[in-house]
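User: Please predict structures.

Assistant: First:
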Amino acid sequence: MVDATPIRPRSAATVAEWDYEADVVVAGYGIAGVSASIEAARAGADVLVLERTSGWGGAAALAGGFIYLGGGTPLQKACGFDDSPENMKTFMMAALGPGADEEKITDYCEGSVEHYNWLVDCGVPFKESFWGEPGWEPPFDDGLMYSGGENAAPFNDIATPAPRGHVPQMDGKRTGEKGGGYMLMKPLVDTAEKLGVRAEYDMRVQTLVTDDTGRVVGIVTKQYGKEVTVRARRGVVLATGSFAYNDKMIEAHAPRLIGRPGAAIEEHDGRSILMAQALGADLAHMDATEVAFVCDPQLIVRGILVNGRGQRYVPEDTYSGRIGQMTLFHQDNQAFLIIDEASYEEGAAATTATPFLRVQPKWAAETVAELESDMGLPAGALQSTVEVYNKHAAEGSDPLLHKKSEWVKPIGTPVAALDLRGFTLGFTLGGLRTTVNSEVLHVSGEPIPGLFAAGRCTSGVCAGGYASGTSLGDGSFYGRRAGISAAKEA
């Protein structure tokens, strides 16, 4: 629920007394906030972080932990993969659009290896091992995995495939409780604390404070229902996450996600976006969303996905987030997995990080014709789909959608269908328009003095498409920039 406190900026002249002061004030103690606080402190600033909940971590600490990095990181090289900033950029521009921010993506790719080294220097551990099976994330403590469909059509023809999902090493991961993202956050918070970064918890940010020149000089929050004023001598960094749980904003900007928020925490209410908008901040890609497809990839890859007309529409061996977007955006959220008994049993026995996403078949039959009838599909629709698929699969090929030959196998009998209609959840990717130095831009195109932002309250490297790790990746990368920029302010 969005707070009813007025969101218009407060004049510094009306603040009789500041309750807290710091050079740099960071709103939010997730991945963007902690990265900003580290770099601001290293630049010599006194840093105060304001966190809405009772502890650090945000959505990052509950996430699977992918950080999207490439261009030839030490981990990529150790696992035997070649990559370059140019190759990484080619993939990202193709996969994360349309309208992807080329300046930001170029900057991100060129700085990716350095950013990996920065994370390692901060104590984030990575195991030099690659997990090559289909899945949402590695089930064990492996450090590298394909996380964006880089090795699937159409992207494997556009750029040379290279895995870029870097995962901090951690045993006993429980995504949604304490995922791999925890082992990203914990060392970074430890680093921030060693640098003298202070934190105040249960602080709900309300609005920004500006001086008579329009410069942001502070922030108003509420702590246990009491109004608290915080002065920022150099700058304010907004890092409070997406607007996935603000129903009004979802309805206005990303209506395809109405009733299906996921992969975010309920504190993602868009407040920072609204606070900056009240100062005239520009926005970008507010309709962009990631969409998770909640079925185990070990099953999906072994069958064929069809829509409500019984037709295939996506290569089943691609990134599950791409499957989710293709299903929700282009197939009216209608999806069924057609799979034979042997393949289902093989997929159900395969190692996975998400056994709880193994869906049971809803229909089973001895023939495709019988299955088609039981599902209520038009006569001949599913039969023709399976016939065409099997004809080419007998030769190990998929000329229609180009699923890789290793996963192409004729569908036999008995055959079943998994009902995956409505199996999508998502979170928002759009937000404040920022520069590569994490300055928040006014609608005029000029930076708003004293205001910086990073993470999911901004529009980062994703403009529509997604790859797992781009949120933690650009959140930490541009969080660092925000901290550096804010510390430099006079």
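Second:
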Amino acid sequence: MDRVNLEFIARRRLETGITLQDMAESLGFKNASTYLKYEKGEYDFKANHLPVLARKLKCELRDLFQCLILLI
């Protein structure tokens, strides 16, 4: 099972020097505070956000995910 790797997204945003407001505007949000709620996991990124994130963060789409191994 995969889930969005919020730590990677936050770290990569900082590494690339992209502001919260820049990310917010790229995803169609008016405020940086709205974007931050997504980055912190309060809201879930939607499928249509992921390609935009990958382009902005200059990474592959698969980099936005972390694999969770479930042992039963």
